[in-house]
Amino acid sequence: MVFLRRLIGGLTALLRRRRQDQDLDEELQGFLDAAIDDKLRAGMTHDEALRAARMELGSVAAVKDHVRDAGWENVIETSWQDLRYAARTLRRSPGFTAAAVLSLALGIGANTAIFSVINTLILRPLPVDRPEQLVEVLSRYPGEPRLSSFSWRHYEHYRDHNQSFLDLVAVLRTRVQIAVTGVDPEIVDGEYVASNFFSALGVRAAIGRVFDARDDQRDAPAIASAVISWSYWTTRLHANPAIVGTTLVINRTPVTIIGVAPREFFGLQVGMTPSLWLPASIEPVIQQPSRLNAMGVGILGRLREGVTIDAAAAEMRVLDRFRIEDLARSRSEAFARDFSIELEPAAAGFAALRDRLDTWLTTLMGIVGVLLLIACINIAGLLLARASARQHEMALRVSLGAGRVRLVRQVLTESLLLSTLGAVLGIGLATAGAQMLVRTMVSGRDFQRVAPRIDIPVQLDLQVLLFTAGVAVAAALIFGTAPAWQALRSAPATSLRAYGAAGNTRSRRVLGNSFVVGQVALSVALLSAAGLFVQHLSNVRNQDLGFERDSLLLVTLDPANSGYAREQLFAPYQRLLERLAQIPSVRAATISGVTPISGAGASRFIKVEGFDEAAEARRFVPLNWIGPGYFETFGTPLLAGRDFTFADKGVAPVAIVNQAMARHYFGESNPIGGRLQLVGQSNSGNTGAPADQVYTIVGVVGDARYLSLHDAPPRTVYLHAFQEPRMGANQFALKTTGPPAAIAADVRRIVREELATIPIARMSTMDDLVDGWVVSERLLATLSSGFGGLGAVLAALGLYGLLSYTVTRRTNEIGIRVALGATPSRILRMILGNAAVLLTVGVLIGLPLVPLTRRAASQVIAGLPDTSITAVIVAAITMLAVASIAACVPARRAARVDPVDALRQE
Amino acid sequence: MADSTPTALVQGTLHMLILKTLALEPMHGYGIGVRLQQISRNAFQVNAGSLFPALRRLERDGLIAGDWQTTENNRRAKYYSLTSQGRATLKREAKDWAKQTAAIALVMSASLEEL
Prior knowledge:
A: 8-stranded mixed β-sheet, 22 strands, B: Arc Repressor Mutant, subunit A, 3-stranded antiparallel β-sheet
């Protein structure tokens, strides 16, 4: 009640300011008159009475001030005054304001951009019911990132036997060809899910219904159903409200649309919105061969009330025996034994993208944090120099009765105004920057392995805006503290007296100097980190890959829905290879199951005749089915024996092994003629060769990297694609004499002529493929260099500001020196010497930060090079060069000081 | 806003004293100051810099109401009077005050023998 009255009273006071002021004036006048009357009655003369009454009342202005201070509304009013005053002050020095706002905008913008990506990817919960209860079930295999290495029957086992979860849902990603009347057939991302998927997550259909038990009948594919995503519905189906009940053709199977998912629901993985969801029960009908029991089912569960994640994990470890026994049967015991299971909170969805990106994002966040810190120190320095220039103004305000608190508030208001301007501009920069960042990050191979298309919708939501506001306030406090401290200490007498040429305290000089030193030190650390990342990038790019990456065109065909059975592809592919080899600029052409760097193909345990191997010493060996001419095309050296030929077709199966393989199994003896077998189930999924097929080694080649750029080349076995019952290779590779892209049109034409029904799924150059692997490294190198450079420029600006101010302050002294005979070059040396000392101290402080930076960075990024002297030297030289340029301008100004003018200034 | 009176007012009592003064009869600003000084036998001299902010606060909180009237000397002055709420507040505060002073007096006059 009292509060409300105060609120209303305050607001009335704000609105009726003038009226209230008049009232108060009149009241005070009344007070004075009454006092005079009293004194007169007591027998004083009129003059005496007037003086005594005035003394009693005190300063009318002060009383009025006190009365105004009595109400809370006064805070608003004085804040508004402060703000207007700050705006006027900033407008009066546009150069300073522009520099400060711009560097803040860059600093805050960079922080906002990185944070908005982190927010979208890591922090923001899924738009589902009570996301905090969700946990992901993940599998770990030694030496590999954690993955969803589960098959559908493993999921069903967990689902049917656990006590910890209210619900367990599963997702199998797929790409399907989709045909709708009125829309061209296209390949889209889809997800097979269990029928409890939507209900367990608490997601209701926007239109129609979601899956229920009806959709789970494996034996009745006639009622095959699909839920389509909002974005597919709106972009492809024109948001047709009557869409429910219509039919889609998916991989030649008719499927009925039963509902549309709500607009905000994008599935369980940020960045990968499927176009449709299908019940897993119809997967074997649509997908041939079925992938339900391949290992790639993502599992997410909702914990029961009161069950901890540790308790659930303990139960899952027991249930996981099912998977391990299953794998032991189908693969091998040694392989299965090493699998373990773990649970991870999944309020933000599946961990796959998060796991791949969070190290980069953390590093970038650190870098932009340091950048913002440099910007803040820089502005603090500028403000401090200005505070000196404004000392007179402050002194005057103190003498006129301004309270210290009010002065500090004034200074902080200015700081806040600056950082608010910077934040507003920074948010603009961040929106553009975050989109660019995300697009670049996910363009890498790493992510194309996760999914073919990733589109992370970075939004500036409330969290991001709050973060930005927080950063802006923190920044304002950081750079506003020093000037505010100065304001707090301005005492009128000393300030007014001290206002003169020598009016500068020692502490202020030390503070200004240490700001520059701090900026230089941080910039050196940032620059050397950038150098480290650049070196890392070049190490990764230029390592020996085991093949030649230039002048290679890769063409992937997709015969899945072409009408060709894989048994029938041998002759057409051989003919196609011959035609492709006839293109004038093609030097060699070949075919393979996987190309180097394109990722995992099949892998198996290998048994080599005459070599007894303990089960736990076995390693997965990547297999690659290739055609003749493969090693010539890729420039991998043939070290012993011979290459495959088309003449091998129909004779005993042959194999070629790489050096790592030969060395492991044959040591110094000759591997040619050695015999090997694949262990485990037959590779029916690949080429249909019998399980006990024996391959004779006919050649040894150099090692090449297949899985990634980052791991050592594994033992590898090459099998002859044309000797197996079914074709296991769809990747054509062409070595060209000119730029590979130039023959793209020829290739398309020839493929169309030879194999009209087989589409080209993908065409790219090997160079692009390799570059795709280093996108994150390149991004980090580029951004850290950019930010490092920016930091150096800011530090240089800080130095410039400090020196200019010093020169201005010392104009008088310099004038005397010149008058006494100092030469301009001597003055120049004096100022530059001053700068050199600051820079040297800064660099010296910065150097110990370099190994610290490296250690911090190597916590999140594996394989960073050791701190290199080169990087540090480059960093130091860059810093010195930029700073020297900045120092020259004020130094030259000092050298040109005219003694007469200088002395007249006093 | 330090008060420099012969005897400094106990912190936070000015409001109560003003309310009490106004409970006797409605009064303008100067009058309140004089009245306080009289009643306290010159112990309390409230200067304008403390008095007027206090009046402003009391008025805002609805404990007193101001009204422009003509004085005995034919001048316009703002006369303050207690509102019903002000009366209630004064009653409550007076009671609290009595309790407190009694307690303080007990403590201050305490000696070992009595314990």
